TrEMBL record:
PANTHER family in alphabetical order: ABC TRANSPORTER ATP-BINDING PROTEIN (PTHR45772:SF2), CONSERVED COMPONENT OF ABC TRANSPORTER FOR NATURAL AMINO ACIDS-RELATED (PTHR45772)
Transmembrane regions: 31-51, 58-76, 88-110, 122-143, 163-182, 212-230, 250-273, 285-305
Cited InterPro entries: AAA+_ATPase (IPR003593), ABC_AA/LPS_Transport (IPR051120), ABC_transp_permease (IPR001851), ABC_transporter-like_ATP-bd (IPR003439), BCA_ABC_TP_C (IPR032823), LivM-like (IPR043428), P-loop_NTPase (IPR027417)
Entry-linked PROSITE patterns: ABC_TRANSPORTER_2
Pfam families: ABC_tran, BCA_ABC_TP_C, BPD_transp_2
Membrane topology: Multi-pass membrane protein
Record-given protein name: Metal-dependent hydrolase
Sequence segments annotated as region (Disordered): 321-341
Amino acid sequence: MRRLSLAAAAIAAVGVAPLLLTPFQVTLANNIGIAALVTLGLVLLTGIAGLTSFGQAAFVGIGAYAAAYLATVVELPPALAWLGGSPWGGLALGLALALAVAVVLGAVTFRLAGHYLPLGTIAWGLAIAFLFGTADSLGGYTGLSGIPVLSLFGVRFDSGGRLLWLIWAVLLAALLVTANLLDSRQGRAIRALKGGQLMARSMGIDVVRAKMAAFLIAAAFAAIAGWLYAYTQRFVSPAPFSLGAGIEYLFMALIGGAASIWGAVVGAAVFILSKEWLQDLLPHLAGRTGNFEAVVFGLLVIVLMQHMPDGIASAVRRAARRARRPRPPSPAAGDTAAPLPMRAKPRPGEVILDARGITRRFGGLLANDDVSLSVRAGEVLAVIGPNGAGKSTLFNQLSGVDRPTAGTIVFRGQLAAGSSPRAMARHGLARTFQHVRLLPELTVLENAAIGAHLRGRKGLVAAMLRLDRREEAQLLAEARRQLARVGLAARCDDRAGSLPLGQQRLLEIARAVAADPCLLLLDEPAAGLRFEEKQELAGLIDRLRCDGMAVLLVEHDMDFVMGLADRVFVMDFGREIAHGRPADVQADPAVLEAYLGADA
Ligand SMILES: Nc1ncnc2c1ncn2[C@@H]1O[C@H](COP(=O)(O)OP(=O)(O)OP(=O)(O)O)[C@@H](O)[C@H]1O
């Protein structure tokens, strides 16, 4: 209902705008609409996926020049002649070129950690501006003029008012599909990128694909904005597509709020209106002409980052949330949804993970030295040992984060040493993290649903067009069920970041079990918890064991481990020093000396 009334209000506002605004205001509204479309792509890319691009203006340039070139050049090269001078041909060409460049840039940079994408987009921004300025066929620095009036389906967009309808209709459609995307399994995969690659990969998310999706959508929005720009100005030249313009789009995203889709509209409007105003005011104050507004925007962004790091739209939304009465919990819409299919489970007592001779060398250091262990369905195995004993290293080998120097790992009957975390997740392994890795701005329910990522099939297009609702209801119902299982049913609609640490750890377990795993790896689950929270956690792990889940945990807390585990595996200096039932291990002299002795 809220979405519908918002959409109706937006359509009505766009409908009457040309009748109420002066021609100058219509021109400003058109510029804002085009800039907001580019910024929307940046919000998705930078604010939501956490990837920075300085090259969005260059993608706008591709869209604008493609339209201008097809519409103005009389003798087209044979490869493009079939597209004729049609505006649709220009749109298709601009989109195809922008997407092709985005695929190449993404393919080169996404597999590398670090700042390769921002650097790549700077290089791309500089190169394309140089190309536009020097290519004779594109008119060099003078550009291409004489673009005809845009005509679509027999309608001529020959006035600012008609162009306003078109530009804002495209922008509203882009806002709608982006909102749809973010409210879906695919959108959660893009959002999960901000939680770190390890978390995303461990949930079975294809990180490169998710980054590419965000980058391609942002490039497509920019190219469409360029097409609209060309037909609005009816003239293109290199300056509006320079690296400087790319930085201005980033400013708009930061000002509006890089994590909110409405921030794109707010940011573009604030930037363009204040630029217009400052361009009049500042030369007057300074007594001479100059681009003084650039200095003001630089300062504005610094001040904003200090006081409103999430931008204006997010600050307004937070204030509104504070002013509103707390909402009653949203109805459990998914509860009537059919349950998701579940994987075939091993029989109780069946060995599901068998590691033999695991050795991991870091240069001259043997972090794991010929370690062998196995885990059975329906048991809790605890790995303990003093600091530096090699527990985390072993955990990384078993979860696919690292590859052993030697040794074999068989998981559910298949060789798994060196498999990726994603492959391990697909095969039935789920994990939590020593330092919780949640998405604090997302709700508890959305965080839990990330765990069920591999249990859905619907793609990006289905998500954007809302053709995924049945599956989405099933995924959310599953997340709700797992939250109820860990005792967080009442917190579904709260922000994950607002939970105390103990509940955040429970949420991580709910997220992990939403994947329907056979083996759950818990990395120091009791760290930082109070006594009651530890008891609650131990009760939950016990229930999971009773349900047939195999649990392998790495833990420092002796009381917690001894009261819970079926078997304890003790390590020191990378090797196994004892292994058996808690009472036997506790009495083992080697353990007392190496580990428990320190406490005695
Ligand atoms: N990536 C790495 N490069 C080099 N040495 C490493 C690396 N990772 C771990 N080590 C070393 O391997 C040894 C085992 O470390 P590990 O983190 O596995 O121990 P741990 O038992 O988990 O310790 P803690 O309980 O303190 O977390 C340590 O000496 C550590 O310094």
